[in-house]
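Before relying on records like the one below, remember that each one covers exactly one chain. Contacts with other chains, cofactors or solvent are not represented anywhere in the record.
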Amino acid sequence: MTTVKLFTVNHFSENTYILHDDTGEAVVIDCGCYRPEEEQKLSNYIKQHKLTLKHNLCTHLHLDHTFGNGFVYRTYGLRPETHRSETEGAPTPAEQSRLFHLPEKTEDIITYKYIAEGESIRFGKSELTAILVPGHSPGGLVFYDKENGYLFSGDTLFAGSIGRSDLWGGNEVGLIATIKSKLLSLPDNTIVYPGHGPATSVIAEKKNNPYLK
């Protein structure tokens, strides 16, 4: 059984997740820790549960989901992992900070590891499958845990909504089409853990999401 720990962080109330199983191996998804106290809470959880962090997974590279990448790299030696399309022509973190009128959070220059669609990410006894769902961003990924019925949707799918498509690489028509074909085809009881807001389920979004009618 995979344990899911949620941390809601930064100016955007972004959802950062740690997943781990009884082997003690773990992954972090969308580490958005901005403030030192947010970084400390995440570190404390890892220490208290004696976890070994194996992957730093990014659904996409918007700044609210990546503030903590430098922290994870410095502390645990893990490069962020994302789809190659996310890094092609994307604004730098500094440019994104200026767009949202935030103080620039300067980090060490980090190179990325790339994840292909359909690739398996393994930690301990657990496995996630990467699904490419562009539209909110050019190379957005979601991570699916088939055994436990969990989907980590980033900013692709929310409870009652979908991701915005007015930033670089966005495409609303493509986003909706891909959600319908790739995500709503998952089992109805799949729990959806989004990048912001409460968890939902595939069946709830089929029934109630006005963007997916």
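Residues 24 and 51 are 5 Å apart (CA to CA).
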